[in-house]
Fold:
Amino acid sequence: MVVAGVTPFGADVDGATVRPMLRGYQARMRIGYFLSCEEYAPAQLIEQARLAQDAGFQGLWISDHYHPWNDEQGQSPFVWSIIGALSRVVTIPITTAVTCPIQRIHPAIVAQAAATSAVLHDGRFILGVGSGEALNEQASELVTPERTAKAIACGPDPAAQASFLRQYEDAGFDEVYVANVGPHYAELIDLYRKEFL
Structure:
C-alpha cells in the first residue's frame, strides 16, 4: 500500500524551503510505503522496507497491531522491534501508524520506545498516535501484570507457574528460561523436570 503526505508551508524539505500553494501546503508530494505488521512476518517487513527505499519511496509508515484483523493475515510482530531493526537497513523517515499510548502500552513505555527509535534513526522517526482499536487494546485485559506476576512469582503454587509457562510452549517457543528463588524453588525445579524435560 502506498501513502502520500504533505508538508506544511515553510517547512524545510530536503534543504529547500517550501513555497506556498493550496492553503499553505506545498505542491511537491512525498510518497511513502506502508508496512503492515498485521500481514507480514518480521523478515518480510524488513525486506519490504529495503526494497521501498531502493525504489525511491521517501518514507515508511508502520502499523502497530497486537493482533491481525483476521486469521488469513496471521502476523503481528512487535512494532518497536521492527523499527529498531529497520534502523540498520533504511535511512528514510519512519512513522508509526499508529500507536495507542493509553491502554495496551503504558505512555511512559511508548515515550521511551519513541525516543530510542529517534536516536536509532538519527532523528528520522515520527511517533504517530491514536486512540486504539478494541482488537488490539483488549490484550491488556487478557494479559495483566497481576496475572503474570501471580503465575511466575516465587509462590506456593509451582503448578500454576508451570501452567503459565506451558502457554509459551504451546505458542511454539523452544526455550523459556526461568529465574526463581525462594522457599519453593526445589519443588518448582522438580515440577519443571517432570513436566518439561
